[in-house]
Specification:
CATH superfamily of one domain: HAD superfamily/HAD-like
Oligomer: single chain
Strand content: 5-15%
Order of helices and strands: EHEHEHEH
Distance between the termini: 45 Å
Helix content: 25-40%
Shape: elongated
Largest sheet: 2 strands, parallel
Length: 114
């Protein structure tokens, strides 16, 4: 089975995920900035489908965000949507500019604030 990792995250984050999951699990990967537009535009999925040599109608995307679902659907892929796990209690979110802004001191502060 041909597989692709299609993400709206930057390449450095995608590479960390690929290392964690095993690069061999994916035939190709696309990160933010590697197509003319990123999600919710269909471009990332269309690029992955083309790189795999497939037709979008023969592909299934597994997505965890509404933006990703919109991107895959716009590309013509079938979609399996996986919702985030429910939160057991209210959590005050911390908003950062990118995953590059998340470091150990920030994570430690979030845990100790509780």
């Amino acid at each position: 089975m041909k597989t692709a990792l299609v993400s709206a995250s930057p390449r450095n984050v995608v590479d960390i995920v690929l290392e964690a999951l095993g690069r061999g699990r994916f035939s190709v990967s696309f990160a933010a900035g590697e197509t003319p537009q990123t999600k919710p535009a269909p471009d990332p999925y269309l690029a992955a489908v083309e790189a795999l040599g497939l037709n979008p109608a023969d592909c299934v995307a597994v997505e965890d965000t509404p933006v990703g679902v919109a991107s895959a659907e716009a590309a013509g892929c079938a979609v399996v949507a996986v919702p985030p796990p429910p939160r057991s209690r209210p959590v005050r979110p911390v908003v950062v500019g990118s995953l590059l802004d998340v470091d150990l001191p920030l994570l430690h502060a979030l845990v100790t604030e509780r």
